[in-house]
Each structure stands twice: as structure tokens, then as C-alpha cells.
Amino acid sequence: MLKKYRVTVNGQAYDVSVEEQGAASAPAAAASAPVSVPLAAPVAAPSPASGGSPAAGSVKAPMPGTVLAVKVSAGQAIKRGDVLLILEAMKMENEITAPADGIIAQVRVQAGTTVNTGDPMIDIA
After folding, report:
1. How do the domains of the chain map onto residue ranges?
2. Residue 87: Cβ-neighbour burial (10 angstroms; 0-12, 13-18, 19+)
3. Tens of pLDDT along 53-111?
């Protein structure tokens, strides 16, 4: 028997089908936990908060890695979603994008810079 669930990851909703195998008591316990999480709707609260405050700030490293390329410079106007830099982490190239429209106030890294999680990389005004 297939059970259908809606899972939300980083604000993106996914419909998932899971095949039930084994005893009936174990899946029943597992099914009750996912049902209570979507009812709380934790995704709805962060979206307005993140959408209401992205005027200025610092773009921080989401993971440890090495900056491969910086795609912007100080004084440049940017739009939300523009690629700011390329960060290599665990042999993968990750595009770090602008969280909001603004002007680049300061670029704190350059190609070859090693960053840790939470290190400020670019300031946006």
C-alpha cells in the first residue's frame, strides 16, 4: 500500500509516495509524526520574515569552502537571485546568490579565499 505525504524542505513543497512494509503498528506511529508537522505550517512564518527584511546585510558562507570566483564588485547594483560568487565545497561548485535587491557595499573575499560557515563574504546596502 502506498501512502502519500507532503514534505516541505527549505520552503519548497514536495509530494512523496511511500510504500508501507512490515507491521501495522510501526507505520501508524510514523504516520502521526509527519501529519502534525505540516499542520503547524512552519514554512509560512519564515517566508514573510525573510521577505520583509532583506534590504541590507551581509551574505554569509552557508558552508565551509573555497571561493572560486567573485562575480560582483563594490558599487554594483544587483537583483535578488543574481549570482554573487562561486563557492567550492566538497568538490562541488555552489552559486551563492543575492538574497535581495541592493548595491554591493563591500566584497570581503576574493578567488582562493577559504571561508567557514557563517563568515561574511559580501555586504549589501
Report:
1. 2-48, 54-124
2. buried
3. 344 689 999 999 999 999 999 999 999 999 999 999 999 999 999 999 999 999 999 99
* Burial state string for 26-63 with b = 16 or more CB within 10 A and e = fewer than 16: eeeeeeeeeeeeeeeeeeeeeeeeeeeeeeebebebee
Has this prediction a pTM greater than 0.70? no
Q: Say which CATH architecture domain 54-124 belongs to.
A: Beta Barrel (2.40)
Residues 6+ apart with CB under 8 A from 112: 66, 67
